[in-house]
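This section describes the prediction task in plain terms. A model, or a person checking by hand, is given the sequence of a single protein chain and must write out its three-dimensional structure as a string of C-alpha cells. No templates, partner chains or ligands are provided. The sample shown here is typical of the held-out split.
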Amino acid sequence: MKQFRRTIAVVLLTAVSGAGLILPYPAQADVPGLQIAPLQYEDTLRAGQVKSGYIDVSNPGDASVDITSSVKGFSQIDSRGNLKFFDDSDLSNAITVGLGNFTLGPREAVRVGFSVDPGKLPQGGIYAAIFFRTQPPGQTSTSSYISESANVGTLLMLTNGSFTTHYGRISQLKLPFWQFGYGISGTLDYLNTDHTAHPVGFKPSLDVRILPWGSSPKLTTGLVLPGVTRTFQLTRTGSFFGLLPVIITDSDTHSTSIAWVFACTGWYAYAWLIVLTLLITYIIGCLARRKPILPAKLRALLKKSRSGKPVQVLIDGIGPKSK
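The expected answer:
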C-alpha cells in the first residue's frame, strides 16, 4: 500500500512539473481603448486658404498607450451606409496631422491639430478619415500576451470649392398600406444623382407631411455619396386614422413623393379595439339568450303532443308507432 502511494505521488509531481514546463507564465490580455471627438468634421474649403481643425484624443484606460495617426479615404459600399477605407496618397499629402506618433498615459488626453491644403486636392467632394491606432505593448521573455489594438477615427466630409448644388431624388418609397400600432412607418431609398465634373455628397433634407395633419418634421438622414443609394427609416409616431396621403418633400430639389396608407394608430387604435371588443361581447350575449330554432316537423309533433292526440314517431328507423 505504501509503495502504491509513493507511485501516485511521483506521477502527480511529474504531471505538475510538466505543466510548469509547458506554461511557465500566466497569459495576460491587454485591451487598450481610445475616445475621440468629434466623430465627424464637415467644412468647405476655399482656394488659397489652408483649413485647420483639431481632434481630441483621450485614453480612458489604466495603462499607457502608444498611438500612431494615419489618413485614409473612404467610400460607401451599400445602401445601409457601410464604409470601406483605403489608402490614398493625394489625401495623405493634402491632410497633415500634427502628431504622427505619441504616447498617452492613463486617463490622459491631448488635442491633435490637423490642416487641409485645398490646392493639393481635386475640386468637389473630399471624403477622408483621420485614424488613431494604438500599438500593442512590447512582449518580454517573462510574459505571453494576447494583444489587441484599438483603431478609431474622425470622418472628414469636405467640399473643395463653391459646389453647393445638390442633385438627388427619392428612388423608392416603401410604406405598407395598412398601418397600425404607434404610428406610420416604412423606408425610402434616396439616390445621389450628381454626375457633374465635381460631384459632392450631402445629407438629404426631407420633410414628412401626413394630410390633414399640418406639421412637417424633418426626416433623419445621413451622408449619401455621388452615385450611391441610401436607405433611410421613415417613422412618424402619433394618432392617425383613415385613408391618408404621406408626402415626402425634398428641400434641395423641391420634388415630392406620395404614398397612400390606411392608418389606425395611437388612440384611434385603442378606441377601435374597445369598440370591437364590446361588439363581439354583445354578439356573444345575443346568441346565448336566443331560443333554439326547431325544425318544422319537430314543432308539429310537439304541438300534437300538447293537444293530447296520439303522435306517431320514428324510432331507430323501424317505422311509425303510436305512443
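For orientation: The CA atoms of residues 65 and 104 lie 5 Å apart.
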